[in-house]
Specification:
Layout: H1 4-14, E1 26-30, H2 35-46, E2 50-55, E3 74-78, E4 92-95, H3 102-107, H4 109-115, H5 118-130, E5 133-139, H6 166-186, E6 189-195, E7 198-199, H7 212-221, E8 226-229, E9 235-236, E10 239-240, H8 241-253, E11 261-264, E12 270-271, H9 272-283, E13 289-292, H10 307-313, H11 321-335
Parallel strand pairs: 1-2, 1-4, 2-3, 4-5, 5-6, 6-11, 7-10, 8-13
Antiparallel strand pairs: 9-12
The chain binds nicotinamide-adenine-dinucleotide (NAD).
Length: 336
């Protein structure tokens, strides 16, 4: 059964779109059992699309999608995107399959590079055959440790091609180049979104998969210290998942994004220490913080310039951090 917070979230996204846009369209979502992918599957099933979810469950969870198995317009294919074989005609392809958490992709660098290279190539070939619209989930990580913050799409990036995060960053950059090559050479309608830190229910906070807000929440609920890397002065900008999904669906359904790259993220920058404090306000008590060394290549600041997406799609996030963090905390609280 779907949790009431997630079902409320999905209803709010669905209400934004006219059902004609996606009804009866054949859609492939790679990484559909993950955090963002499962929200996309849920929303598109409700909007009447015929959804195929492809996932190898490296970080995705069956529980994110198992309530969809009974829907006649939902199908799961268990498999690796880097070995993807062409299938029946697709109208839309969303390429989200990739390990996404730094600890995890550093343990699986080859798999991460292949999902974002071989996987992208195979999907682009299918899109070329079908004349599908194909969207790639790139990342703010391609900006590296930027000198320009808020960072616009035309910032060229300050990244290491050999550092510990390079398997992720260079994979994303290769895919971006390949998506643009198919657009230029074959006129394919390919679109790139650069996602900045997104959070919400289902964002894993455990072990290797732990991303900061979920990790803080699980630590708070488990009576453990919050773990902060460095002195906590590094910044991030956190976007609640409903805002992101709305942006993704606008990006794939609006022709202005054909051949474009856009940032999707919150323009409200906050330090890691201040986000820990925000969580303490929600929990209603002071929590201890343990400090650990800053990992190599960790970006000092992260904040998107969102002028381009505002102009193209009239999109900007609507859920503030307090509201989103409260919902996320409540969701985790009900599960532990
Ligand atoms: N969440 C964020 O803040 C964020 C930020 C920037 C970019 N992204 C990108 O968005 C996408 C989804 O991220 P997420 O946060 O939902 O992560 P997630 O780990 O929850 O989801 C990724 C999904 O991809 C699947 N997967 C991984 N490798 C695969 C492979 N080779 N073949 C098939 N399936 C595979 C996983 O099992 C998982 O279900 C990723 O491409 C990620 O790089 C996410």
């Amino acid at each position: 059964m779907i949790d009431k917070i997630i079902s409320g979230d999905v209803t709010s996204i669905v209400s934004y779109f006219s059902p004609e846009i996606f009804r009866d369209k054949n859609v492939l979502i790679t990484g559909g059992a993950g955090f963002i992918g499962s929200y996309l599957c849920e929303t598109l099933v409700q909007l009447g699309a015929t959804v195929v979810c492809l996932d190898n469950f490296s970080t995705g969870l069956t529980e994110n999608i198992d309530h969809l198995f009974s829907k006649k317009n939902f199908q799961l294919i268990t498999g690796d995107v880097s070995k993807y074989e062409n299938r029946e005609k697709l109208d839309y392809i969303f390429h989200f399959a990739s390990r996404a958490s730094p600890d995890d992709y550093q343990l699986y660098p080859v798999e991460t590079l292949l999902a974002n290279s071989q996987g992208s190539y195979r999907l682009l070939e299918q899109a070329r055959k079908d004349d599908s619209i194909i969207l790639f989930a790139s990342s703010s990580e391609i900006y590296g440790n930027p000198d320009v913050v808020p960072t616009p799409e035309d910032y060229l990036g300050k990244v290491s091609s050999i550092g510990p995060r390079s398997c992720y960053v260079e994979g994303k950059k290769f895919s971006e180049a390949l998506f643009m090559a198919y657009h230029r050479k074959y006129g394919l309608d390919s679109r790139i979104i650069r996602i900045f830190n997104t959070y919400g229910p289902r964002l894993r906070g455990d072990g290797l998969y732990g991303r900061v807000l979920s990790r803080f929440i699980l630590q708070a609920l488990g009576g453990k210290d919050l773990t902060v890397y460095g002195d906590g002065s590094q910044t991030r900008s956190f976007c609640y998942v409903t805002d992101l999904i709305q942006g993704i669906l606008l990006a794939i359904s609006n022709g202005k994004v054909n051949g474009e790259v856009i940032n999707l993220g919150s323009p409200s920058e906050i330090t890691i220490m201040d986000s820990a404090m925000k969580l303490m306000e929600i929990v209603g008590r002071k929590l201890n913080i343990s400090f650990y060394p800053l990992p190599e290549d960790d970006p000092k600041r992260r904040c998107p310039e969102i002028r381009k997406v505002k102009e193209l799609l009239n999109w900007e996030p609507r859920v503030n951090l307090e509201e989103g963090l409260k919902k996320t905390f409540e969701w985790f609280n009900r599960r532990v």
